[in-house]
Amino acid sequence: MREVERSAASVEEAIEAALAELGVSEQEADVEIVQDSQKGLLGLGSREATVRVRVRDGGVGPSAERDAEVATDFIRGLLERMELEADVHHHETDGLMWVDVLSGTDPDAMGLLIGRRGQTLDAVQEIMRAAVMRRTGEKTRIVLDIEDYRKRRRAQISEQAREAAERVKKSGKREKMEPMTAFERKIVHDAVAEVGGLESASEGEDPQRRVVIEKKGR
Questions:
Q1: Distance (Å, rounded) from C-alpha 123 to C-alpha 114?
Q2: Alpha helix (H) ranges present in 23-148?
Q3: Higher per-residue pLDDT: 155 or 22
Q4: In what order do the strands lie in the sheet with 198-203?
Q5: DSSP assignment of 174-210, as one string?
């Protein structure tokens, strides 16, 4: 089983670096968070986040199903407290466990939980993961999606990345993508790899961290 251990300023950046080295997507790997990052006082006592990423043999285990049930119950409870009606269910797709929220009556109301550029969705996802950890004692990488926002965003970013990659391949001029989350940057890396003859790397600090695409060997 192939695995690497990487450290970075944040958990997401460490995961991104490990996935890029292994050449796999998050759906094809198991992620273990060895330690979270910590900000020290005046730079003293700070530490980087460390993750261990293993290439998955395939499928998800019983613990993922258990975590998904806990996550689904948490989201249902959250929606009930907010007096929002929606269908909440979990499923496995490409080796990754998802919790999907779909409103059959008022999809626009779900916009409150998505927020600008999915920022609220990301925050709710982290709260959901924390709730699962409190219940099970283990960290989880379950993905929360509302009204298929992440799926639509994935398709949009993949298309933009392929178009940018083709331009770079034709002109030889490097291009910078817009600032994105680690989840979105990995989509860009995967799309660029499919084009071939190019390389991509992330630069900058969150929330302005972005992917740069250029020809190999420049």
A1: 9
A2: 62-81, 111-114, 119-136
A3: 155
A4: 175-176, 210-215, 198-203
A5: -EEPPP--HHHHHHHHHHHHHH-SEEEEEES-TTS-E
Radius of gyration of the chain (CA): 18
Q: 51: part of which helix (H) or strand (E)?
A: strand 49-55
Long-range CB contacts (within 8 A, 24+) of 101-105: 101/75, 101/144, 101/145, 101/146, 101/147, 102/146, 102/147, 102/148, 103/147
Average pLDDT over all residues of the chain: 86
Q: In the predicted model, is pLDDT for residue 40 greater than 70?
A: no
Handedness of CA 179, 202, 129, 40 (dihedral sign): negative
* Torsional class of 208: left (φ above 0), alpha (ψ -120 to 50), beta (otherwise): alpha
Return the closest-CA partner of residue 70 out of 32, 12, 30, 127. 127
The listed range with the strongest mean pLDDT (102-106, 199-203, 208-212) is: 208-212
Using CA atoms, how far residue 181 sits from 62, 75, 122, 128, 201, in Å, is: 29, 22, 9, 18, 14
pLDDT band for position 89 (cuts 50, 70, 90) = very high
Q: How many residues does the chain have?
A: 218
The pTM assigned to this predicted structure is 0.70
pLDDT of amino acid 102: 94
| Measured distance CA(138)–CA(6) in Å, rounded | 20
